Amino acid sequence: MSDQYIAQTVETLMRRYPGEPEFHQAVNEVLESLAPVFEKNKEFEEAGILQRIVEPERQIIFSVPWVDDAGKVHVNRGLRVQYNSALGPYKGGIRFHPSVNASVIKFLGFEQIFKNSLTGLMLGGGKGGTDFDPKGKSDNEVMRFCQSFMAELYRHIDADTDVPAGDIGVGAREIGYMFGYYKKIKNIFHGVLTGKGLLYGGSLARKEATGFGCVYFCNEMLKDRQSGFENKKVVVSGSGNVAIYAAEKAMSLGAKVVAMSDSGGYIYDENGINLELLKKLKEVERKRISEYAKEVKNAKYAEGCAGIWTIPCDIALPCATQNELDGNAAQTLVKNGCIAVSEGANMPCTPEAVKVFLDAKISYGPGKAANAGGVATSGLEMSQNSQRLSWTFDEVDAKLHQIMINIHATARDTAKEYDTPGNLVNGANIAGFLKGARVMISHGV
Ligand code: NDP
């Protein structure tokens, strides 16, 4: 009966939103876990929870015109999907990347509902973005774009309504320009965005949070198999915000990170990546990762990012983008002795890859659990902004660490309760869903 209810809901959604493969993938992945939940809780179907949770509460699409340094006019498309507000103000990042479209933003917004629920904080789910590519643009061009983006978005967000953050292509620079413009046109200084600079309301440890959190989560999975990061060989894809701090935390726990990538290719340094050099190249100089191999004698650079998964490792941390690790890559990782995969990125592993990991019984941490440290620390930034106080780095990091331990325990225990021990995909989906569903029932239709 519940299988039929789920199948009908999926069918309606696919019909309503054709041609949106990432969105369909994310919904299918969650709904596959939920049949036993609907079997046990008949009131969810009676209250139409499934139809209500898969349909965004509000979708805003707007044009973003801006002028480049040569005086030429460009128009990009902006999106904000306010997905579900049962648990608090909509919360989720803004992505600037040419691949952004409604399918990508809806998949990210949908995942965000369950992730935010898992943090234990009062946060609803949302996501936004645009197909603008900040790469190769001057600071002034990025500023003008951010101002034009906010000239529309400001109508829809507020510290108690919808609180965006950064994501791919949106870091401290972009958040600063968007915050400055919001303040100017609304004449209000409050925590409407997270990931802010430390001098105007940002939280210590927010920059590090997603990467650190991904490693804290992985460490909990490793503990369950009487292991840890000490002396392990780690491969991290990406070299952006999440990847850099995942690599830093893994190294601080005694691991050797041997490979990292960007959208052009990957570097392999068998002596262990020199993270200070990598940070200088990527965070300060905004260069390509291929430059690393020019500066480090024994390091090798290879074109194309998928090849990174052929490097033998004990632990893989995909921290770049969606669907970057497919079934073949997963088989290679398992064959090479990989024992744990923790997702820093959102949905980086394809469904085929996830199946390979689950079948091989290696530890697999899905993104909505393993990368929830970023949004959790955004939630901590909101708390500090409301209090007009700043906590120390250690205070925030300790809270983040505890949240990741709790998320892991919740996912593990829920997986066991629903007769799929070790399957953290099921555990995270079910636990994230249950809290939101119960609150939706309390709020009425
Ligand atoms: P950044 O923009 O800082 O870095 C993204 C990295 O991934 C870059 O190295 C980039 O390479 C690479 N990348 C981006 N797109 C592609 C692609 N299509 N193919 C191959 N490589 C690609 O973003 P973040 O580090 O913030 O985000 C990375 C992932 O983590 C995303 O999935 C994001 O949604 C997720 N995430 C981020 C959080 C955060 O707090 N920032 C929170 C939770 C999840 P290049 O520079 O060449 O484009």
Short précis:
The protein is α/β, with parallel strands linked by helices and 445 residues long. The protein contains 17 helices and twelve strands.
Describe the protein's topology.
Layout: H1 2-16, H2 21-40, H3 42-46, H4 49-54, E1 58-67, E2 73-84, E3 90-96, H5 102-118, E4 125-130, H6 139-153, E5 162-165, H7 172-186, H8 206-224, E6 233-237, H9 241-252, E7 256-261, E8 265-268, H10 275-284, H11 290-295, E9 300-303, E10 315-318, H12 327-335, E11 340-342, H13 351-360, E12 363-365, H14 367-370, H15 373-387, H16 393-417, H17 424-443
Parallel strand pairs: 3-4, 3-5, 6-7, 6-10, 10-11, 11-12
Antiparallel strand pairs: 1-2, 2-4, 7-8, 8-9
Helix pairs in contact: 1-2, 2-5, 2-17, 5-17, 6-7, 8-9, 8-15, 8-16, 9-10, 12-13, 15-16, 16-17
NADPH dihydro-nicotinamide-adenine-dinucleotide phosphate binds at residues 99, 166-169, 210, 238-243, 262-264, 305, 319-321, 324, 344-346, 371, 374.
Characteristics of this structure?
5-stranded mixed β-sheet; 445 residues; 12 strands; 7-stranded mixed β-sheet; alpha/beta; binds NADPH dihydro-nicotinamide-adenine-dinucleotide phosphate
Overview of this structure, please?
This protein starts with a helix and ends with a helix. The protein is built from 17 helices and 12 strands. The longest helix is centred in the C-terminal third of the chain and has 25 residues, at 393-417. The mean pLDDT is 97. It has a 7-stranded mixed β-sheet with strand order 9-8-7-6-10-11-12, with helices on both faces. It has a 5-stranded mixed β-sheet with strand order 1-2-4-3-5, sandwiched between helices. The protein has helices spanning 2-16, 21-40, 42-46, 49-54, 102-118, 139-153, 172-186, 206-224, 241-252, 275-284, 290-295, 327-335, 351-360, 367-370, 373-387, 393-417, 424-443; strands at 58-67, 73-84, 90-96, 125-130, 162-165, 233-237, 256-261, 265-268, 300-303, 315-318, 340-342, 363-365. Helices cover 50% and strands 15% of the residues. Helix 5 packs across helix 17. With 445 residues, the chain is α/β, with parallel strands linked by helices. Residues 99, 166-169, 210, 238-243, 262-264, 305, 319-321, 324, 344-346, 371, 374 line the site of NADPH dihydro-nicotinamide-adenine-dinucleotide phosphate (NDP).
